[in-house]
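subagent[fold] <- orchestrator: predict structure for attached chain, return tokens only, no commentary.
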Amino acid sequence: MIPHLKVETENAEKTRSVLELSGNLNKNFRPIKEEGYILWPVTEDTTGDIIFRSGIPSKDSSGDYRSLLPKEIAILAPRAFDVLGHVAIISPEDSFSDFIPEISKALLTKHKNIKTVATDGGVGGDFRVRDLKYVSGDENFVVLHKENNFIFEFDISEVYFSPRLSFERSLVLNQAKINESVLTGNLVVGIPVSVLVALVIFGAGVGLFIGAMPGLGSVNGVAILLPMTFLVPPTSAVIFLGAIYYGAMYGGAISSIMLGIPGASTAVATTFDGRPMAMKGKADKALVAAAAASFVGGTISVVLFTAFAPPLAEVALAFGPPEEFALMMLAFATFIGLGGDDIPKTLFSIMIGLVLSAVGLDIVSGEPRLIFMDLPGFMHGVNFLVLAIGIYGIGEMLWTVELSKGKVMISQATVTVRRVLDTLKELISTWKTMLMGSFLGYFVGILPAAGATPGSLMAYGVAKTAAKDPDTYGKGNINGVVAPESANNAASTGSMLPMLTLGIPGSPTTAILLGGMVIWGLEPGPLLFVEHTEFVWGLIASLYSANLFSLLINIAFIPAFIWVLKLPFTVLAPVIFVLCVIGGYVPTMDMHDVWLMFVFGVVGYLMRKLDYPLAPAVLAIVLGPLAERSVRQSLIGSQGEVMVFFERPISGTILMIAILLFVLPAIKALRTRILANGEKS
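subagent[fold] -> orchestrator:
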């Protein structure tokens, strides 16, 4: 009588695989079929629903490795042995211990999948690891073991793993709903690519919606959804959050273009030319340009991230407070070009922004400053998003109401496949702006605590300064959309570099991701790329795919966005008003900011009516705190020595360029006056 394991027919093949892998299948006999059941012939030490039947001899027993051994050894050789990946593990007994070399040779010859043979000296030690001794074949104990549609990768000399526990592992995996590659100690669980793609698509779609909602943005979206990711493995969590991050970058441009309300601080610069294009019936062109530029910026930044992560991290480290201050001064120098030829009005606008950026608590002493009328709401400063929504949301609405003079206005906007293709052809001429925005945005992004907002604003300033037609900026120039959108997406990827390599967040969003990594048990730094490669490359892969799917989703929904613009302004105005109120309240949950937003809206309307440029004020409130922090850190570190900014090679060079840009308008004005006097004479 031969022991047989009785299993239900639907589980027959799964059971056979487990028995084969464990070496518990008796291949000298054939399985027996009974109604609803399969009886597998097994070895005597097999556990389960064992019953005894007269065994049906197998027609061919040549598959047994013992057929290659002499009869006197074959009788003693073990019928069962563990097979983990390419390694066969034999438990030596006194009866055949002297014949281990012959047995191992037969195993390697008969079983082509077996590359290594080792003996098991038993389980011991604090971690209950097998005492394996190499016998023959390749001396490699790192194996891949397939089981229940999962792949386990581990070193059997360092981790205990038994094929007999497959059922218990399947219960754990199913309970945890694990569906991707996860690292737990030395254990890796593999997943279908389709699930990862679904995560990316879903995350990009959610991010697109979050980015388009005024007041939310990637920071709020990632912060809100971060707790949900603690239920899943780190790699899937970071793929999902990375997709949201990218989707939000794309989505921020939607409300900026369609309604004139920045969906996020990173999309403020997009409003400058995106909204005028929409008012001229070119909303589809603006949306396609924003999506395409975001894709180019994201692609270039991911390539740079993949290829040059270590050296770029070292460059970022070379940027101390003096270099950061010099970079801010360079940005301020480009502001001069944002206000057109009226330099005094531009400077006045910058000063307003700098004053507002100083409201709140002193960054060094902590003392309150510029607390208007002693209102406690000013203690946390003037929120940039509140200013942007007030000026470009409420202010734009008031301006449109004045222009309409009570008439029902409907924006003329159409979208066709031909118009989309024509826009893509037109974008070829903007390749220089795209490249400039991508590289500048990425470089600003990798600087610790800089982020995508300064990057996008600086890219817009540089694009306008270098343009042959700077007067067209702010009036619907497609380059004014391309520059900030390519920059903010590039910066979003760049800001991940200091987070992963140095443990220093490059933006508010990456600061939240950094907190998530700590909770997931991952320590940022250079060793992250070595110890958790699947996490790092999973993140990089998600950035590639999220970039592509965000582009496709964005373009696919352009008709829906255009439909919104076709609504009468009498319908849009209340919607814009409600969205502005929500956007003003969400960042701080303080009604003080809502009332402040209305004030900014009226001020923005009056500045526009008096022909004062709004962009420099908005940009100054962003870069003002960064410039103040870096200059005070530099002076404290040098004990008040101003020359520290010029003595360092990088900061000195950048400052000289900034000074040149500052005096350039004066040189131009002087030249114009000299030429005019020459013509008169």
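orchestrator: received. Logging for downstream: DSSP finds 26 helices and 16 strands in the chain. The longest strand covers residues 116-124.
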